[in-house]
Amino acid sequence: MKKSSEEPIPKWLAKEDPLSLNNRLLSYCGLLPANTDAEERRNLVICTVMIILNLTMITGAFIQAYFSHTNFMEIIECGTVCITQLKCLLKFLTMLICHKDLRYVINNVTRNFYVHEKLFKEEIISKIKAGKKVAWWITVPYTSMFILTIGLIAAEQIVAAIKHADRFSAEGNETEVTGVYHRKLPLKIWLPINVKESPSYEIGFMYQVVCFTFEIYSTCIIDTFIVVHVMFASIQYELLGEMIQLSADKVAMLLRVRSESSQQDSEHKAGSLHSEYETETVDKQNTKLSNGEVTYISNKENLMSTPTTDAFRREMNIYLGRCIKHHQSLLKYIVHLNILSSPIQFLQALTSSLLICTLGFTAIVSGSTAILPKVLMYTFDALLQIGLPCWFSTQLRVQGERIAEAAYACEWYNEPASFQKSVGFVIMRAQQPVVLTMGPFGTVSLELFAAVVQSAYSYLALLRNVYAEQ
Fold this sequence. Notes:
- By secondary structure, the protein is mainly alpha-helical.
- It has one domain.
- Helices cover 73% and strands 2% of the residues.
- The chain is built from 14 helices and 2 strands.
- It has helices at residues 11-14, 20-28, 37-67, 72-97, 99-108, 121-171, 174-178, 200-245, 247-264, 276-284, 310-366, 372-408, 417-430, 446-469, and strands at residues 286-290, 293-297.
- The chain has a two-stranded antiparallel sheet.
- The longest helix is centred in the last third of the chain and has 57 residues, at 310-366.
């Protein structure tokens, strides 16, 4: 039976909803594909507001960078802001432009967990629940750390203003104590108001904090959305490997269940794979994986492990066909995920080394310990932003390569030549790496993460030499 997009997802699987958290957070950004006209209008309003906020912040950042071109340190600080603002906008626009691919990956992530709705039910549910826990630990702390960084940036200026007010109150003469004091905004972004006076300063302060918070929130949700999808794809490849490796045992179970089911109920057809009795019996027949070996556990009666009957061989071909179609579905899913994420990952790799470099340079040259918490947190965020997709993309590649090992271990040597040929095709296709890409510019992997960190260190050394010469 061909598994298509029209085939309903089993109720027990649909109930798990692996993307419940990420989809809900994505809807707050107006990026979750709409199913009704009301949702479409809501998304349009949210996206329009987000784009306008991004454009105003980017414009202000570049104008401020132009005004500060004579000050080396201010250029570095403005450059960090410009890179961050531009990255936020481009990520958001990528999600809007690739909305068809976004809808595809959302609609198919749950469907790609199973080959046969009667098999591996407990294993699938267990892995989905474990994956949802990991998704929570990726999404919530990751987003919280970025929001905390914004809080540290704002708190730095608030604390500076409070300290100055206390000193002025104690001495009674502001000019003699600190000279003319100018309150600073959280970000080096130009605003068309006189921020040196109240209430313009307070308005500009709140404007920057609110806009930057929304930008960072949407960016974090996009980042974690992609990472969580890659993580679940890795789990799906792991499950597919187990399904292929245990194909002989599982087909034997289905044949045994079919035989017993037809004996108990004459209304059940001998070839049916969808009876309730079959579901209950298959759940009782488990496999125990220990040290890479498969130990077959049966009830009081032993099941045949590798029958040589025509029925068994016919069922093995059908089962392998379903596994191959499932593999093709996963490959298509990765293609759509790459279309969605490739521009984002390329942008991330391109800017991460620059951000890490400028942040490290600011921490070294400033000589102020007050900015260290902000700079260190921001640097850690930048490392995490490129590190997470690199880690999970590497895990995806490893699980994709293990499909070949699983196919080789499926007792293909006991089957006809046609079955062996199909297994050979599976092995050859599985040897092609399955990873996140940056389009034609390479793949996302731990090797990329190491290259980004190395480049950041090289840029930092170069920047320090240029600054020392000045």
